[in-house]
Design brief:
single chain, 458 residues, alpha+beta, D-Maltodextrin-Binding Protein, domain 2, 2 domains, 13% strand
C-alpha cells in the first residue's frame, strides 16, 4: 500500500467495520458490557455545562466505551481536573470500538474533527500521514516508567517516530466455570488444544458449550484466530514481512482442528457475535468458557447480587482465568495495544500534547489503572510492580506480566500497514469462519492466501 492518502483503502477499512454497534455519546450516558446504562448525564445540567472557552482552548477526545464502566466514569471525572490544569475545555466522547475506524477515516478525509483519537493495535501506522509526531511525549514517558513493552514499539512507531502515545494493553484470557470443568473430570484448565477439545466436547453434550465469535468484531475474534494459526506453526509472512506464506501445511492443520473444535465444542450460534455477546452468554450460564478480557469476571463480582450461577451463588466465585492452550508450536496471544494519537489537522496540537502528558502523570494514570483491575495493563513496565496486584483476586493476577509475550499480526514479519489492512478486513478470521461453515480447510487457506497476496503484492 502506497500511503494513507489513498482514499479507496480508507473507505474499504471504514466499510469493513460499519457493522458495529451504534455510537454512544458518553456525555449522555455510560454503559456496561451488557449495554445497560450505569450512569446518565444531561448535557445541559449545571454539573456538565462547560465554562466559556474560545475554540483555541478546546480539546475534543474520542475513546472507546470501556468494557469496565468505572474506567469511563473515572476519566470523565478527571476531565474537569485536566481542563483546569492545562487551561482548556476538554470534551470526552466515547463510542463503540467497532465505530472508531470509520470515525477516524471520516475525520482525516474531511480534515476536521476531534483533536485526539483513541487507537487500537497498530492503527498509528495505518493513519500515520494524518497524525502528529508525538515522540517527545512518548520518549519522556518511556524514560520515566521503565520503557514500553515490545508490542508498543511495533504498534505505535513509524520509521522510528512515535505516531501515537502508548496508553495500555488489554489482554484476553479464557474465563471458565470451575465447577463445570470439575464435573467433566478436569481439575484445572487444559494446557493443550487436544485436551481442550476433549473437555468441551463433553461439556457441549451436556448443554454447556464453549463460546467463541468468528465475526467481524475487533477484539474477541482475531484474538482467537491469530493465536490459533500461530499455535499450529502457521504464519502470514516470512521474517521480511514482504512475502506471504500463509498457504502452508501448518495453517491447513490449524483450520482442520478449528472445524472439529467448532462442531464438537462450540455454540454454533456464536458465529457472528460481537465483543459483548459472549459476556452476556457467560453471565447467563449459556456457555462454559470463552476468550475475553477479565471484564466478565470483574462485572460479575461487582454485580454479585444480580449475576448468579446455576445454583444461585455468585457467578464470579465459580469463575477463573487461564491462558490459551498450546498447539504443536506452542501457546501465543494477540493482545490489544491501546494508544492516543493527535490529528495533524488539529489547531491545538500543543494543548493536546500537554493533555497526554497530564493523563500519564502517575497520580492520574494510577487512578484509571486501579479501575481496570487487570483488564488493561499499562503500556509501560513500571506498573507491573504496582501494589494493586497484591490486592487483586487470584484469577486477575494472571494478567500482570502476560503483556511481555504477546505477538502482533503480520507474524513472522513486522507489523506493517499491509498487515493492518489484512487485519481490518478480517481475512484470517474469515478463513476460519468459511471453514466451519463448510469450505474445505485447504480451500479456506488458499482463499485467505490469495486475499493477502492482493494486498501485499500491489
Amino acid at each position: 500500500m502506497a500511503s494513507l492518502g489513498r482514499r479507496a483503502f480508507l473507505v474499504s477499512c471504514a466499510g469493513a467495520l460499519t457493522g458495529g454497534l451504534g455510537v454512544s455519546r458518553a456525555d449522555a450516558q455510560v454503559t456496561d458490557e451488557n449495554g445497560e446504562i450505569v450512569e446518565r448525564r444531561s448535557p445541559s445540567s449545571p454539573s456538565t455545562r462547560p465554562p466559556a472557552f474560545t475554540s483555541a482552548t478546546r480539546l475534543h477526545v474520542v475513546r472507546w466505551v470501556d468494557f469496565i464502566p468505572e474506567a469511563d466514569i473515572e476519566l470523565r471525572r478527571q476531565m474537569a481536573e485536566a481542563s483546569r490544569a492545562i487551561g482548556a475545555e476538554i470534551t470526552l466522547e466515547t463510542i463503540n470500538a467497532n465505530d472508531l475506524q470509520p470515525r477516524i477515516t471520516s475525520a482525516i478525509q474531511s480534515g476536521a474533527g476531534p483533536d485526539i483519537f483513541f487507537m487500537l493495535h497498530n492503527w498509528a501506522q495505518l493513519y500515520s500521514n494524518g497524525l502528529v509526531d508525538v515522540s517527545d511525549v512518548a520518549n519522556d514517558l518511556a524514560s520515566a516508567e521503565n520503557g514500553f513493552y515490545d508490542s508498543c514499539l511495533a504498534s505505535c512507531q513509524v520509521s522510528g517516530r512515535w505516531m501515537s502515545v502508548p496508553h495500555a494493553i488489554a489482554g484476553n484470557v479464557v474465563v471458565y466455570r470451575k465447577s463445570w470443568l470439575g464435573e467433566a473430570g478436569f481439575a484445572s484448565y487444559p494446557k493443550t488444544w487436544d485436551d481442550a477439545r476433549r473437555l468441551f466436547a463433553t461439556l457441549k453434550r451436556r448443554g454447556k458449550p464453549y463460546g467463541q465469535t468468528l465475526g467481524h468484531t475487533f477484539g474477541d475474534a482475531p484474538s482467537f484466530t491469530y493465536p490459533m494459526l500461530w499455535a499450529f506453526g502457521g504464519a502470514e509472512t516470512d521474517r521480511s514481512g514482504r512475502n506471504v506464506i500463509l498457504n502452508s501445511t501448518q495453517a491447513i492443520e490449524s483450520v482442520k482442528f478449528m472445524q472439529a473444535f467448532w462442531k464438537e465444542c462450540c455454540d454454533e450460534g456464536g458465529l457472528a457475535w460481537d465483543d459483548t455477546n459472549n459476556n452476556r452468554a457467560f453471565h447467563s450460564g449459556e456457555i462454559s468458557a470463552t476468550l475475553n478480557g477479565p471484564s466478565i469476571y470483574i462485572v460479575a463480582r461487582r454485580q454479585k447480587d444480580r449475576i448468579k450461577d446455576d445454583r444461585g451463588g455468585p457467578l464470579w466465585q465459580d469463575s477463573d482465568h487461564a491462558p490459551l492452550p498450546a498447539g504443536p508450536a506452542g501457546s501465543y496471544h494477540l493482545f490489544i495495544n491501546e494508544s492516543h494519537a493527535i490529528m495533524k489537522y488539529s489547531k491545538n496540537q500543543k494543548l493536546a500534547k500537554d493533555f497526554l502528558r497530564w493523563l500519564h502523570r502517575p497520580e492520574n494514570f494510577g487512578r484509571w489503572f486501579q479501575t481496570q483491575e487487570g483488564f488493561a495493563v499499562s503500556a509501560t513496565k513500571k506498573w507491573e510492580t504496582d501494589p494493586m496486584w497484591g490486592r487483586l483476586d487470584e484469577p486477575l493476577r494472571v494478567l500482570r506480566t502476560l503483556a511481555r509475550n504477546t505477538r502482533i499480526f503480520g507474524y513472522a514479519g513486522p507489523a506493517t500497514v499491509r498487515s493492518t489492512e489484512v487485519f481490518t478486513k478480517y481475512i484470517v478470521t474469515d478463513m476460519y469462519a468459511k471453514a466451519v461453515q463448510g469450505m474445505s480447510a485447504a480451500d479456506a487457506v488458499r482463499w485467505a492466501d490469495t486475499q493477502m497476496r492482493r494486498i501485499y503484492e500491489r
